[in-house]
Design a protein that fits this description.
alpha+beta; 5-stranded antiparallel β-sheet; binds adenosine monophosphate; binds zinc ion
């Protein structure tokens, strides 16, 4: 997708602080972290949002959760725990229209996940 920020990051056209990469998934540090650990995990393939997932994408989504598990292990926060958030669409507060999974951690998070 032209003019998609996260497609450009996936292609290396815009720099990012990578924490994990394979042929179909990339994880990098959020530029404006809301917690000590704030990592974004994206499919390299352009998928606009959770609402745009096709049947053929479902196994990829499963592998993204596998990558999140690997990242938590490699980065040393698996034991302490963390939160995964996916904002979807206007009411979900999604600002970048390329599916991404926020990994938030490094501190004790509140029990109310959203307002
Ligand atoms: P969302 O509101 O769920 O669409 O989240 C978009 C996230 O992307 C925000 O947390 C931003 O801080 C983050 N972000 C925007 N531009 C960049 C960038 N160039 N590199 C890393 N993170 C970014
Ligand atoms: Zn994209």
């Amino acid at each position: 997708m032209e003019d998609c920020l996260f497609c450009k990051i996936a292609k290396g056209e815009i720099p990012s602080q990578k924490v994990f990469e394979n042929d179909e998934i990339l994880a990098f540090k959020d530029i404006n972290p809301i917690a000590p650990i704030h990592i974004l995990v994206i499919p390299k393939k352009h998928i606009t949002s959770l609402a745009h997932i096709q049947k053929e994408d479902e196994e990829l989504i499963g592998r993204i959760y596998g990558a999140i598990n690997t990242i938590s292990e490699e980065q040393g926060f698996k034991q302490d725990g963390y939160r995964v958030i996916v904002n979807c669409g206007k009411n979900g507060g999604q600002e970048v229209m390329h599916l991404h999974f926020h990994i938030i951690g490094g501190k004790k998070l509140g029990t109310k996940i959203a307002t």
